[in-house]
Amino acid sequence: MSAPQERVGLIGIGSMGWPMAARLVQAGFSVTVFDAVPGQAAKFAQEVGGQAAVTCAELAAQSDIIFTMLPTSAIVEQVLNGEQGVLAGLRPDSVVVDMSSGVPAHTQRLAQAVAAAGGVMVDAPVSGGVPRARTGELAIMYGGPAATLERVRPALSSMGTSITAVGEVGSAHAMKALNNLVSAGGFLIGVEAMLIGQQFGLDPNVIVDVLNASTGMNNSTQKKFKQFVLSRQFNSGFGLDLMVKDLGIALGIATDTGTPTPFASLCRELWASAGKTLGKGQDHTAVARLSEQLAGVELGAKPKD
Ligand code: NAD
Q1: What ligand 1 atom has the least distance to the C-alpha of 101?
Q2: CA of 198 to the centre of ligand 1 (A)
Q3: Ligand 1 pocket check: which of 11, 13, 15 to mutate, most ligand atoms within 8 Å of Cβ?
Q4: Distance CA 66, CA 12 (A)
Q5: Which neighbouring-strand residues pair with 202?
Q6: Residue in 70, 101, 285 to alter for ligand 1 test, most ligand atoms within 8 A of Cβ
Q7: Residue 176 annotated in active site
Q8: pLDDT of the chain along its 305 residues, tens only?
Q9: Which ligand 1 atom sits nearest the alpha carbon of residue 238?
Q10: Which of 64, 86, 268, 272 could form a disulfide with 247 if both were Cys (CB 3.0 to 4.6 A apart)?
């Protein structure tokens, strides 16, 4: 197979961006990386490959396709429009692919700015977390023109195994927020079920096994409870603040569309409370600690005699 022709850049070499950029390098792309943390891009280039850029403008000047994997839409805007930002170095006909989890309306505004600068912006957020980013098996949602998808498909295919086009630019960010709403609800209800069961006298590990063989199974019962909660590791690699952000986006869309969502609102409220109660820098799986505090027990702890 011949080497990919398009030169790619990836901005945001964090928990997700690092393994995603590594997949692009492994697929044979010429990859330029940038991160706000000094030395992070150079570390990537040294350990994995590719080139480190000193500014986003420099990265853009060296890339045909520019991926962003950043915490929020506000930061994506800063990276695009700021001094020495992507738009300052954008080449004609370049594509900006925002793979962060973002705010649909914000992304649509940014897409207009990119179009005015001669490029195209699309959104392609992901699901699957750090483990599937490492193996290149992410689920990718795509919002934007069909022709642009065909252009970016080879690069996306090195990072994900499923690519679903869901509509115009911004629509994939809406879809991603809704996915995480479902995921966040499944996590919390599962934790409460384990707490009830443990108080009744059931072993939480057995509860997880039975859920996984039954209709109560979900991604959290399969991939999070034993691994990160019952193990007390709380280190999935997806921050609690990022999940709270996603729930805010989902509820914002509910407000914008006039959709009554009492269940989803309570879910967001609980996750946001955990963010405030547990403090900064927590993994999202640590939200279980809020439910434990409310119940006055710790999952997996032996009952007091
Ligand atoms: P992270 O905090 O680990 O990484 C973000 C990176 O962006 C960091 O390296 C940070 O230094 C860099 N950064 C921040 N501001 C910057 C700026 N102005 N210029 C350049 N770089 C900057 O976050 P993450 O977990 O990798 O998540 C990134 C995005 O992916 C978020 O939108 C998140 O919601 C989404 N996401 C995360 C996961 C996950 O499991 N971690 C899964 C799916 C989607």
Answers
A1: 32
A2: 36
A3: 15
A4: 11
A5: none
A6: 70
A7: yes
A8: 566 789 999 999 999 999 999 999 999 999 999 999 999 999 999 999 999 999 999 999 999 999 999 999 999 999 999 999 999 999 999 999 999 999 999 999 999 999 999 999 999 999 999 999 999 999 999 999 999 999 999 999 999 999 999 999 999 999 999 999 999 999 999 999 999 999 999 999 999 999 999 999 999 999 999 999 999 999 999 999 999 999 999 999 999 999 999 999 999 999 999 999 999 999 999 999 999 999 999 998 765 55
A9: 41
A10: 268
Atom 9 of ligand 1: nearest residue by CA position = 14
d(CA 60, CA 85): 8
The CATH label, of 3.40.30.10, 1.10.1040.10, 3.40.50.1820, 1.10.10.10, for the domain at 174-295 is: 1.10.1040.10
Q: Exactly one of 176, 226, 245, 304 is catalytic; which is it?
A: 176
Rg (CA), the chain: 20
Q: Range(s) for CATH 3.40.50.720 in the chain?
A: 7-168
Task: Outline which parts of the chain fall under CATH 1.10.1040.10.
Answer: 174-295
Q: Tell the burial category of 39 from Cβ atoms under 10 Å away from its Cβ (0-12, 13-18, 19+).
A: exposed
Taking the centre of ligand 1 as the mean of its atom positions, its distance from the CA of residue 237, in whole angstroms, is: 10
| pTM confidence score | 0.96
Q: DSSP labels for 231-298?
A: TS----S-BHHHHHHHHHHHHHHHHHTT---HHHHHHHHHHHHHHHHH-TT-BGGGGHHHHHHHHT--
Fold of 7-168: Rossmann fold (3.40.50)
- What's the 140 CA to ligand 1 centre distance in angstroms? 16
